[in-house]
Structures are given as structure tokens and as C-alpha cells.
Amino acid sequence: xxxxxxxxxxxxxxxxxxxxxxxxxxxxxxxxxxxxxxxxxxxxxxxxxxxxxxxxxxxxxxxxxxxxxxxxxxxxxxxxxxxxxxxxxxxxxxxxxxxxxxxxxxxxxxxxxxxxxxxxxxxxxxxxxxxxxxxxxxxxxxxxxxxxxxxxxxxxxxxxxxxxxxxxxxxxxxxxxxxxxxxxxxxxxxxxxxxxxxxxxxxxxxxxxxxxxxxxxxxxxxxxxxxxxxxxxxxxxxxxxxxxxxxxxxxxxxxxxxxxxxxxxxxxxxxxxxxxxxxxxxxxxxxxxxxxxxxxxxxxxxxxxxxxxxxxxxxxxxxxxxxxxxxxxxxxxxxxxxxxxxxxxxxxxxxxxxxxxxxxxxxxxxxxxxxxxxxxxxxxxxxxxxxxxxxxxxxxxxxxxxxxxxxxxxxxxxxxxxxxxxxxxxxxxxxxxxxxxxxxxxxxxxxxxxxxxxxxxxxxxxxxxxxxxxxxxxxxxxxxxxxxxxxxxxxxxxxx
Length: 496
Ligand code: NAD
Prior knowledge:
Elements: E1 6-7, E2 10-12, E3 15-17, E4 24-29, E5 34-40, H1 44-59, H2 62-65, H3 68-84, H4 86-97, H5 101-110, H6 112-121, E6 137-145, E7 148-152, H7 158-171, E8 175-179, H8 186-198, E9 205-207, H9 212-221, E10 225-231, H10 234-246, E11 250-254, E12 260-263, H11 269-280, E13 293-297, H12 301-313, H13 333-349, E14 352-355, E15 374-377, H14 384-387, E16 394-400, H15 403-411, E17 418-422, H16 426-435, E18 440-443, E19 462-463, E20 476-484
Parallel strand pairs: 1-5, 7-8, 7-10, 8-9, 10-11, 12-13, 12-17, 13-16, 15-16, 17-18
Antiparallel strand pairs: 2-3, 4-5, 6-20, 11-19, 14-15
Helix pairs in contact: 1-9, 3-6, 3-8, 4-5, 4-8, 6-7, 9-10, 11-12
Bound molecules: nicotinamide-adenine-dinucleotide.
């Protein structure tokens, strides 16, 4: 501890170490608006040290000698250790990112499922004996790990998004360097204590913190890194993709969204109102899957907006550690300012303000970075407020006439992460999801994710899929092994 600030260290090769720079930076508690922890400022030297350790653990010692079954057992042990610390992990994340304890405790209690699921999958990835078309030849395939994987995460759900990458990467036999967000690295450091308790060999999992342009970029560039698994903003994702391309690395990208939540006239209105609320005000709108464009069929538009505004007005803002708070602060000051900027943009674009539209000055919000739950009506899909990711509690309502228009508006953005559909029609429930350009479509629900179901983006929302059985393939490569049983080598100048 330095003063009352928790001072963390990097974890490389199983050791707690100071950053090469000798520098730490402050992490703010978004509710208090004050620093609460000091994170090490990692640099290129630290990136190299971490990749050295991960590469060594991949090529020598206990980890590469371990059977997939033993790896699976270790992952499940990590799941158990994590489950025992889920509440504590949730509390650390609330101090760092200001999300509600109600959400972060539940989210962290769910995290072990990724370690259980991929632990179970570790020894079920089978190669094949191919029906080879050559005489005197035996040919089979092996699915092998890639090597060192870099996992880069954002600030909104640090440990959940780490698990999405780490669990399949380790199940496949890779080693990993985690680069958490510079705003929310605390849970990743605490996580390394759990990794140690579970009994992972040193260097299999490493954590280096710091800024994206410094340590993040250096990790992506390192020649020995064979895959980068990234979740974050679209601009940073594009940059990571370009940097990784130079080294011909595998990349998976989970990026931003501008998801349509589509309310048809035949929906159960009370449920759809709750779905709209959960889409945009849960987590203060700071989720990639936020249903930030609410498309409402014209015939029920006014009635729906009245009910939605009335419900949103009751939202309880305040201390994220209190179980009855419903909307917490924005996680970072730059993000807070960005959202305020978008409120000006909406005004300039001519959107009509139905609720909020300003910083929340309520006494229960103290000095925290709070934005009033905000609803705009009369939004045209071409407005910036409808096209750009705000990443805050700001909803744009866009009316539509019929199914074709709803689908056209839904798809008319560069993103394609998620969508919601509210209807009682079985035809719509089946046909509309097929027509929407998004990696996830929810019908009569919103914001559901699972370790079992693939998650990822269409268009500029990303590349690759996390969760579900196929995710592990993104962390593997296939080898073809040929064995000749012929007694002599035929003409060596001719291809066999
Ligand atoms: P960000 O892009 O600023 O940062 C994400 C991470 O990337 C951080 O760890 C950062 O340090 C690192 N980084 C930044 N530039 C880098 C570079 N050049 N090289 C290597 N690393 C670099 O994003 P953020 O503000 O932390 O998170 C919010 C964004 O994340 C939103 O756009 C949101 O939609 C997106 N997000 C997507 C998903 C998803 O699953 N699709 C989930 C959560 C958040």
C-alpha cells in the first residue's frame, strides 16, 4: 500500500515484479471520482520479458508435457478457486469500473463456467486418420496449440472477457500474456493469486499492465506471439489487426456495436419496455451489446415511449456497491466527457429529448461520473447519435412502418454485434433474425450470453467467435503427419 492506494506489480513467469519504467499510474474509483490504486506502467521491455516467460513455459518443462486431460483438470481447479473468490473479484471490479455489485458479483460467479466448459473440452479435440489415397502410406492429423497468445481486454467486464480468451487458449495448450485495460487492471492482478493457488506452472499465464500504445502494441508485435485475442474499441481493434498482420498472426477481434432493439406492434409491451431498459441502462450503457437504437413500430410508438420514459424515470442512481442501485457511474473520465459530447451532438442533429440529457447532479451521485438516463425520440438513422457508438446510457428511438423498413434500418450501420426482436409472432421470431446482420439476435430477451453459445460480430463488430465448442479451434493449428510403410523410396524426382 502507498498511502491508502493499493500498489500492484506485474506478474511474469510466476514472479511479482516491478515495471521496467519504475513508474506507476493512478486508477480511479468512478463512484468516488478519486484514485484508489496504482498500476505498473509496463513498457516494451516488460512485454518482451512476459513473452520470454510465456514462450519458455510453452516449449519447456511441465506444461507441454502435460496431457490434455491433466490440463483440463487444472482448468477446472482454476474454476473452483475462482468460484470461491467470485464475490471478492466482483468487489474489486466495482472499485475499478463502477459497475453495479449486483451485476459484477453475478458476472464473476458465472466466470468459472468458462474454465469448466473448456476444461472439459481439452481432451475431446480429436485428430483423424485420413482415408489417404496413396499406397503404403499412413496419414493422420494432429490439432496443436499455436504458442504464445496475447489476450487484450477492455474495462467494462475485465474478468469475464479474460475468461472468454484464457479458457480456450489454455485448454488448447497455449500459454498466455494478459494485457488488461489501463483503467481496470486490479482484478487481473488478483486473478494471478488464484492462478498460483490452482497450481499452474510459472509462465503459463502472465499479466502486464500499462497503456495500449506502449505495452499492448509491443506485445502484438513480438514475433513469438502467434495469436492476439482482442476485445475493445473498433479503432484500437483495427490498429491491432494491422500490427498483427505484419507478423502473420491469428487475430480475433470483439469490437463495438450500435445494436438495434426492434419492437413490433404484436409484442408484450411490458416485457419489451423492460428489454429496452436492460438494453441501454444496464451497466450504464457501457456494454458492446447495448441496444442503443430502439426501433419502435409506428402504431404503438407513442404509447410505448410513454411507458418507457415513465419506467426509466424510476431508475435509482447511486453507489454501485449498494444492491438496490440500478444505474451506476461511467467508468472513466474520458468516457464521461465523450458521452456529454454526444448529448451536444444529438441536440445539434435535431433529436428530441424525452428524458435526461445531462450530467446527473443528484446528491446520491456525489462526485461520481454520472449521466442521467437519456432518451431521444424522433431520431433519424443517419444522425451521428444513431450511427456512432456512445457507450453510455443514451437511447435513440427510431420509428418504423413495417418489417422491411425495420430490417433496413437495423442493418444500416457499420456494426453488426447484436440485435433484439420483440414479437409474439412465430413467423417474425424465425424470419427477422435471419435477415439481421449481427452475430447475436435475441428474441423476447436481451443481454443473454453463455459459455455454450458462440459470440462475435458481423461487419465492423469483429472477427472470430468466442465461447461454444468452435472457439477452441481459433487457438489451434492442424498438422498432417505422413508415414510411409513402403520398403523402398520410389523415384525421388517425382512428387508422391
Ligand atoms: P480500447 O480499445 O480503448 O481498449 C481496449 C484494450 O486495448 C485496452 O487494454 C487497451 O490498452 C488496448 N489497446 C488500445 N490500443 C492498443 C494497441 N494499439 N495495441 C494493443 N493494445 C491496445 O477499448 P475500451 O475503451 O477499453 O473498451 C470499450 C470498447 O470495447 C467499446 O468500443 C466496446 O464496444 C468494446 N467492447 C467490445 C466487446 C465485444 O465483445 N464485442 C465487449 C466489451 C467491450
